[in-house]
Specification:
The structure holds 2 protein chains of 2 kinds. Chain A is α+β, with helices and mostly antiparallel strands. Among the domains of chain A are: about 90 residues, RNA polymerase II/Efflux pump adaptor protein, barrel-sandwich hybrid domain (OB fold (Dihydrolipoamide Acetyltransferase, E2P)); about 200 residues, 2-Layer Sandwich (Chloramphenicol Acetyltransferase). Chain A contains 10 helices and 20 strands. Chain A starts with 9 loop residues before the first strand and ends in a 6-residue tail after the last helix. By secondary structure, chain B is an all-alpha fold. Chain B has one domain: Non-ribosomal Peptide Synthetase Peptidyl Carrier Protein, Chain A (Orthogonal Bundle). In chain B, about 55% of the residues lie in helices and about 0% in strands. Chain B is built from 4 helices and no strands. The chains are: A alpha+beta, B mainly alpha.
């Protein structure tokens, strides 16, 4: 079981894509696994023949446990090696378990799997309404509401007895505030309940009077569990220091506008890709931001693998890597970013993408945050943050104007670098964004 | 493209981006971004999806016109290169 990040301790094999006797090549995706955060595809790092499957579908095992044996030698003298773990690790002795005994895999979103496991519900028993019939989180919630209205599992507020016309936004607000929609009179089209209808209602007086639904609390705790352990460790072990710099984005955005005019719809670039490229090139110039701190020493990384923080639609966060980001043309970087976001949200990330980030970037501007002072993902040594692009008054050469401005921040490990180097890093990001045509 | 076809096109594309959303309850004049928790990457994928289904090459400056369901219906109704 490969580690997909410092916060992962175990994982569940959800589907084998190979069987004993199959020929495999380095890089082939051989197995799908599920972690507390997301579903992942795992590539094999050897070329050879699958000799034996050691962990059956549905089994949850610790990181480091061999999943299968692959014969990498000549057919006459096979030399089985564990898949996706260090070759030195001895295979765990266990009776072979036929793959066929596992139930056929059920398509489900990662959050649906987590919730179903948390609540002890068989996913196979729930009709899926997602893409390709996948079971979604809301399918699980509805199944719970239908089948087990016992107090700990019943979502609050309970589902209204008749079908209500409610806008998605109003439904979300009602859930957040614990408002019973059945008691709300809608003023929207056809009597539908809109967000405005809820604004007229008194806000619940105190959190205690509107307790968080037990189900929501359990889910949130579950999705936060892996990240919370890692963040505790980060705050305990890493002496962070924080720096920020306002960056005038008018040149970058102006150049991008012109560039996108020349590009077809499918090849257009978001400004996020400019930020990533500038960060990667700055990390090349200031290598103390890029690498790992392990066993009391800093190991700089020659490759700049940018971890990109991606929020999952139904809660949770993953930070898969764009490998070797500093050497990729902007168009390639954009394509990889788009692909990562798509696959992250579909639960199709690959194991290698989850364990190789050397520096993480988070962009919280879309959510309206002005600036981000992040918490470093151990064993990395820096986290770069970008806030929202905001029009601000900007003085330059004695003239005052209005410019689109973004605040770039870095949280860095003081054992590895100091404010002087961190400052140079941010200044480099700024300089690069003023020459977007060179990115 | 008539209004019904435009709506179906929009829903087909959105369904790939936010499979969990219930489009019956989408407020037609409110921006998708506000109702469906989509970000700029999702929106770009939405524009690409519209392009793939209709052949329309939506310029960036027209993106705001496609921010809501009614906006999309009006834009798609005007046809390519509107």
């Amino acid at each position: 079981m490969p580690s997909l990040g410092a916060d992962m301790t175990e994982g569940t094999v959800t589907r084998w894509l190979v069987k004993p006797g199959d020929q495999v090549h380095r890089g082939d995706i051989v197995v799908e696994i599920e972690t507390d955060k997301a579903d992942m595809e795992v590539e094999i790092f050897e070329t050879g023949t699958i000799e034996k499957i050691l962990v059956s579908q549905g089994e949850r095992v610790a990181v480091g446990t061999p999943l299968a044996l692959v014969a990498t030698g000549s057919p006459a003298a096979p030399a089985p090696a564990p898949v996706a773990v260090q070759p030195a690790a001895p295979p765990v002795a266990r009776a072979p378990e036929p793959v066929a005994k596992a139930a056929p895999p059920v398509r489900a979103t990662p959050t649906a799997r987590v919730l179903a496991r948390e609540l002890g519900i068989e996913l196979a028993s729930i009709p899926g309404s997602g893409v390709g019939g996948a079971v979604t989180r809301s399918d699980v919630e509805h199944a719970v509401a239908r089948a087990a209205p016992s107090p700990p599992l019943q979502p609050v507020p309970s589902p209204p007895p008749r079908r209500l016309l409610v806008s998605p936004r109003a439904r979300r607000i009602a859930q957040e505030r614990g408002i019973d929609l059945a008691a709300v009179k809608g003023t929207g089209p056809g009597g539908s309940i809109t967000a405005a209808d809820l604004d007229h209602l008194a806000v619940p007086p105190a959190p205690a009077a509107a307790p968080e639904p037990a189900l929501e609390a359990a889910k949130r705790a579950q999705s936060r569990r892996p990240i919370s352990g890692l963040m505790e460790r980060s705050n305990r072990e890493i002496p962070h220091y924080y720096l920020g710099l306002d960056v005038d984005m008018s040149r970058a955005l102006g150049w991008l506008r012109e560039e996108n005019r020349r590009r077809s719809v499918t090849d257009r670039i978001l400004y996020s890709a400019l930020l990533l490229k500038a960060t990667a090139l700055a990390a090349h110039d200031v290598p103390e931001m890029n690498g790992y701190y392990t066993d009391g020493a800093f190991e700089p990384s020659t490759a700049i693998n940018l971890g990109v923080a991606i929020s999952l639609r139904q809660g949770g966060l993953v930070a898969p890597a764009i490998m070797d980001a500093s050497n990729k043309p902007l168009g390639d970087l954009m394509r990889e970013l788009a692909d990562l976001v798509k696959r992250a949200r579909a639960g199709r990330l690959r194991a290698s993408e989850m364990a190789s980030s050397t520096l993480t970037v988070t962009n919280l501007g879309e959510l309206g945050a002005g600036f981000v002072y992040g918490v470093i993902y151990p064993p990395q040594v820096a986290l770069v943050g970008f806030g929202k692009v905001i029009e601000r008054p900007w003085a330059e050469a004695g003239m005052l104007g209005v410019r689109p401005v973004i605040t770039a921040t870095v949280a860095a490990d003081h054992r590895v670098s100091d404010g002087h180097r961190g400052g140079i890093f941010l200044a480099t990001v700024n300089r690069l964004l003023q020459e977007p045509e060179h990115l | 493209m008539n209004a019904e076809q435009a709506r179906e096109t929009v829903f087909a594309v959105l369904r790939q981006i936010t499979p969990e959303a219930d489009f019956d309850e989408l407020e037609p004049d409110v921006e998708f971004r506000e109702q469906l928790d989509i970000d700029s990457m999702d929106f770009l994928n939405f524009i690409i999806g519209i392009h793939e289904r209709t052949g329309m090459d939506v310029p960036e400056e027209d993106y705001p016109l496609l921010a809501s369901l009614n906006g999309c219906v009006a834009y798609l109704g005007r046809g390519a290169g509107a």
